[in-house]
Amino acid sequence: PEQPTKTPDVNTSESIAVSIKDPIDSINNVLRDAPNDLDALEYRASLYLKRQNLKYAAADIAAVLEMDSSRTKALELWGDISFATNQTRQSRDAWVRCMKEDPNYVPCRLKMAQLYHVVTEFEKSAALVDEVLEMEPSNAEAAYLKGLLMRDALEDTTRALDWFQKAIDLKPDYIEALDMSGVLYGSLGNPLALGYFNRLIELQPDIRVHFYNRGMFYLSQQNWNGALEDFTKCTQLDPQDLESFFNIGYVHLQLQLYAEARQYFTQALAIQPVNHRALYGRGYCFELLGDLPNAEADYRQALSFNPQHRGS
């Protein structure tokens, strides 16, 4: 994980202000009195970066590097800003320079490892990850990246899951590792997936994708009630969730509740009319309900969108 940015010293009244108003306002107060406070500029840049205000973040970091080009935190953030704007070569240059300035500064090594992973230079990524694990055996992010390398470079799901679990053991609220474990176990049809999905929902009860992933696992196991509950929750969190409406229709179709299934396919079509799957599903419901003219109309419409759709 990123090393915490040093928060500039502020007096008691300013500390209270941080808790009751925008922290950027508080940092602005610090910088008003000390415009060359490099810690404050880096901290404000990190806040801007989190809010995707890349222009302001870049301005602060450029100011820091102008005053001290060897600041490792500033170089790390410059790499982050560049990566966020798809300037990966600039990211690489910043993080490589950061590592040269301070070989023991872990965040830049991890970010270079992530970059190498993204561009599928797996050997370079693995070398950096192993260096970090040697320096910090309890680094959860390094363990997670090791798991990604096991999955993507070696296609070894078992070892990948072991490393993801290690990351979770080190950091029990590690969302990405929990999600990856749940999805991988789910793809194997392993009920252990549910424990990870349940933990994600406990940590982030308003994030739709966690319910969707658990619903898909229930669907694969033909646990219709579980699937219905989760996909319904998805539509409550996002009324435009096309796939969840389609999946609810599919479940009702499996339960032979054809009229109800038809309604959900219709809701999916209201969100995205150009949808041959939902048209086929609704057409099939019409057919099973004995409404052949409407069934034919939906099948023909589905074929107009996808002439190769064999079901239609």
Strand content: under 5%
The ordered H/E elements are: HHHHHHHHHHHHHHHHHH
**Which class of the domain at 240-312 in CATH terms?**
Mainly Alpha
Enter the CATH topology name of the domain at 240-312: Serine Threonine Protein Phosphatase 5, Tetratricopeptide repeat
Task: Provide the helix percentage.
Answer: over 70%
What CATH architecture of the domain at 240-312 would you give? Alpha Horseshoe
Please describe the biggest sheet, giving its number of strands, its sense, and whether it closes into a barrel: none
The chain-level structural class is mainly alpha
**Which stretches are poorly predicted, pLDDT < 50 over at least 5 residues?**
1-20
Q: Give me the count of strands.
A: 0
Shape call:
elongated
CATH superfamily of the domain at 240-312: Tetratricopeptide repeat domain
Ends apart, CA distance between termini: 50 Å
Q: What is the averaged pLDDT score?
A: 93
What is the CA-atom radius of gyration, in angstroms?
25 Å
Oligomer: single chain
Describe it for me?
The chain has helices at residues 12-20, 23-33, 38-50, 54-67, 72-84, 88-101, 106-118, 122-135, 140-152, 157-170, 175-187, 192-203, 208-220, 224-237, 242-254, 258-271, 276-288, 292-305. The protein has 312 residues and is mainly alpha-helical. It has a domain at 240-312: Tetratricopeptide repeat domain (Serine Threonine Protein Phosphatase 5, Tetratricopeptide repeat), CATH 1.25.40.10. Helix 2 packs antiparallel against helix 3 and helix 15 (242-254) packs antiparallel against helix 16 (258-271). The chain is elongated, with a radius of gyration of 25 Å. The model is unreliable at 1-20 (pLDDT under 50).
